[in-house]
Design a protein that fits this description.
Blueprint: H1 6-18, E1 24-25, E2 38-39, H2 45-55, H3 66-73
């Protein structure tokens, strides 16, 4: 996401400071010129999108399913043969 102005940047910075237990900031808010990457848990997406809407902040989804992406990169589990 990218803040459009100082007001929206400060709101995101406050979210970073106060809500980091909910939102996983992959990049910390540094300036208006730098995009901010945030992983939002599925249970908080609507709240987060409503928040962005109030800020008129630009955003896009980079990875829709982080867990699915991680699982797709893991090798398949080894098959085990049980013998008596």
């Amino acid at each position: 996401m990218k803040a459009r102005d100082l007001t929206s940047f400060n709101a995101i910075a406050k979210l970073y400071d106060e809500q980091s237990s909910i939102y996983d900031f992959w990049t910390e808010p540094r300036s208006l010129d730098h995009p901010i990457d945030i992983m939002v848990p599925p249970t908080s997406i609507k709240t987060f999108l409503d928040f962005l809407k109030t800020l008129n902040a630009d955003h896009r989804v980079k990875i829709a399913d982080v867990q699915g992406l991680i699982l797709s990169t893991l090798p398949p589990p080894a098959a085990f043969m049980l013998t008596n």
